[in-house]
Amino acid sequence: MSIHIEAKQGEIADFVLLPGDPLRAKYIAETLLTDAVCYNNVRGMLGYTGYYNGKRVSVQGTGMGLPSHMIYVSELINDYKVKTLVRIGTCGGLLEEVKVRDVVLAISASTDSSAVTRYFPAMSFAPTASFRLAQLASANAVLMNIHLKAGNVLSSDLFYHFPEEGDAYELWRNYGTLAVEMESAGLYMLASRLGVEALSILTVSDHLLTGEHVSAEERQYNFTNMTKLALSLAE
Length: 235
Ligand code: HPA
Fold this sequence. Notes:
The protein is α/β, with parallel strands linked by helices. It contains 7 helices and 9 strands.
């Protein structure tokens, strides 16, 4: 048992999928896994362990934002010895060439969050995905007919902005950042520091240039595609 996860030792698999929404964890466990057992309900942050194509996997909700996400990731790695963590989530498209419904592979994640920047005063750390996982996801995506956009994303502390900020994302667009979300940089930083493998696979649910967004129904479909790609990385 850790502070936020009530699982016993051995109840969590070495490979864990990380959706932000705990109900998404439940949905994945019920629709894609076999023999899934719920191991966590602390704060309603549901976690399950089951099997996908015969491979033992867990799926753990993390909540939104780097601080919440990093609590679960820290405990999964430190207390439950998890070795591979794959975030699945939504993101907002920043560039014109990134379309709503696209699946984005976050090779690296820039951030405005002090949850990462506090460790590097007057310097900058580049939170980066596991190359092995990124390469495998890229190969599996071809087999699954999923077209990936791979590159840098922004992991921001803020979802909402005030009008006086102007275009909060212009700077990031100028440097080719594909999309904005709120967790990956924290995941990659912890994975680097604690010596495990991590990857974020994201679906573009809304676009910050065009204002376009997908319906709830479609989000479900696209999410399943991305989730199957994430699950294909389990060994
Ligand atoms: N901002 C931050 N995170 C997000 C967004 C967004 O617009 N859309 C989906 N996740």
